[in-house]
Write a structure and sequence with these properties.
elongated; alpha/beta; two-stranded antiparallel ribbon; binds zinc ion; 45% helix; 19 helices; 7-stranded mixed sheet
Length: 518
């Protein structure tokens, strides 16, 4: 993949491509020579080959880049998730390109020169390689710099150098972040405004997984993937972008006070988040997880990881249908004592095993891909399976709304749904997600976002929902809006609240408007 890409980028200057090949080969040769010594050569070569075999599979099959964020995803993914990626074709690929060459290396006898002579010889080889690298590099420096700047993705596919450096960077990162204590945020937070006729204010946030906006019929998709939500009185924000292209980035980012431009993994860990601010305002916060965890967002609030329950009604092989979340909502609602926020973290459309995300009743777009291995399915089957996951999410979110509607006499309820990132379904040969944000295709960052609010809540809290709907379809929105909009919905005043990022702020009666306190 690296060489094909490079060849494509250098079409204008074939001699530059030759210099590029020479330069990179010399650099790799120098690297291997560096590790050439008794007891070191063979294990090093085998390690390089195995890493290359595994990562080339993901490079070539899914167009996945093995960068630091991708290593983070792999490190935090659950066993069940990883299991879906280990398919017979994957095993075959690793056997042919990794294990067989490794056996050859073990079998070959390497005659090592006496140590001193070897040191001289290897140094000479390395110096020669470095010289070739420098000459090749400087002779076409302008071309290389131009291509490098225009195609930052190129070096990302250099195998196995990229995956290894990424893993090293990830380990260094996690060491540095191991003992970070989150600094307090929004400790001045408090609830304001009239209490809703004595009813507790309840917001249920459905944090979606891998749902892309392109496949939401609420946003104009040609297939009826949102039949139930279409009948609910929801406001849909058709132009919304995510903070990251992977759960491990998006979830901590969107619950943080930072915008995408300001956010970093480290800053996310160093600062309390939306859930903490709500807690400071004496809002009760609960997180029910059916996904891969909360990425430290819930370190200081009530958290339950549902797949460990292995409830036979919903779960199989360590994963559960999202119905397990809905199943818990009634009990939670029965026990609320006051203003509360419930986060339901969905498994949603998590691939590649889309077909395991929905029950038989939601297998409506057929034929659907029933394999973990996209190579076994047609594009149509993959799309059908994916659309069924959206159809099921439509049902889950709509059911949550219904549960709040049923209790409108005793609760002032609202629901917010958004996805953490999108998904590539084969566009330009890319599948799944996790592409570096800068070069990510729109399918991975354009996410669905919607809000439902009980009529009496909208009325007493002074929301003009017609205005909200107009705002929603007129402008662009993003995960940057979530933090401030939830504070707005819960009427929580604090100096960290920014009304300009609250999607409702412009559509509230001025008497009910939350201001940024000083
Ligand atoms: Zn995700």
């Amino acid at each position: 993949m690296f060489w094909t890409r490079a060849y494509g980028y250098f079409t204008a200057e074939p001699t530059a491509f030759i210099a590029f090949v020479l330069g990179i080969s010399a650099a790799i040769m120098a690297l291997f020579t560096f590790f050439s010594a008794k007891y070191v050569t063979k294990p090093t070569l085998i390690f390089f080959i195995l890493v290359a075999a595994v990562s080339s599979w993901f490079n070539d099959q899914f167009g996945v880049t093995i960068d630091k964020e991708m290593i983070r995803n792999a490190a935090v993914s659950t066993g069940a998730e990883a299991g879906h990626l280990i398919t017979p074709r994957f095993a075959m690929h690793v056997l042919l390109t990794g294990i067989l060459p490794s056996l050859v290396i073990i079998w070959v006898r390497i005659v090592h020169r006496p140590i001193l002579w070897k040191l001289v010889h290897n140094t000479a080889v390395i110096l020669a390689c470095v010289a070739v690298f420098i000459v090749a590099g400087t002779s076409y420096y302008k071309t290389f710099a131009g291509v490098g700047r225009a195609h930052r993705d190129l070096m990302d596919t250099l195998n196995p150098v990229m995956p290894i450096t990424s893993a090293v960077r990830y380990v260094i990162d996690s060491q540095r972040n191991a003992n970070v204590v989150a600094a307090p945020l929004g400790t001045d937070a408090h609830r304001v405004g009239a209490v809703d006729n004595g009813k507790p204010r309840v917001t249920i946030i459905v944090a979606g997984e891998t749902a892309r906006a392109q496949n939401f019929s609420l946003g104009g998709y040609g297939r009826p993937t949102n039949p139930e939500l279409a009948k609910q009185n929801v406001v849909y924000f058709p132009d919304t972008t995510s903070c990251g292209t992977a759960t491990a980035t998006s979830i901590p980012c969107l619950f943080s006070v930072y915008t995408r431009a300001q956010y970093s993994h480290r800053k996310g860990l160093e600062t309390q988040n939306l859930l903490d601010v709500l807690t400071h305002a004496k809002v009760d916060v609960t997180w029910l997880d059916n996904d891969t965890g909360s990425y430290n967002v819930t370190d200081r609030v009530s958290y339950t990881y549902l797949p460990t329950s292995a409830d036979p009604r919903f779960c199989k092989d360590g994963e559960c249908l999202d119905a397990i979340l809905v199943d818990k909502v009634d009990n939670w609602l029965d026990h609320i004592k006051g203003d509360s926020v419930l986060v339901l973290h969905q498994l949603g459309s998590h691939g590649p095993a889309y077909y395991q995300r929905y029950p038989e009743e939601f297998r409506r777009f057929t034929p659907d891909c029933r394999a973990n291995d996209f190579g076994k399915c047609s594009q149509e089957e993959i799309n059908n399976a994916y659309d069924n996951t959206i159809l099921y999410t439509d049902h889950i979110v709509s059911t949550v709304i219904d549960k709040l509607k049923q209790r409108s006499g005793s609760i002032s309820g609202a629901v917010m749904y958004f996805s953490d990132h999108g998904e590539s379904l084969g566009e330009n040969g890319i599948y799944l997600h996790g592409t570096p944000y800068m070069i990510a295709p729109p399918e991975q960052i354009h996410v669905p976002f919607l809000v439902w609010m009980a009529d009496d809540l909208a009325k007493t809290a002074g929301y003009d929902m017609v205005c909200v709907a107009k705002q929603a379809s007129a402008g662009s929105h993003s995960h940057d809006n979530i933090f401030h909009s939830v504070l707005g919905m819960m009427d929580v005043a604090t100096k960290v609240y920014d009304p300009s990022l609250d999607v409702f702020s412009a559509c509230r009666r001025s008497a009910n408007k939350l201001a940024q306190a000083n």
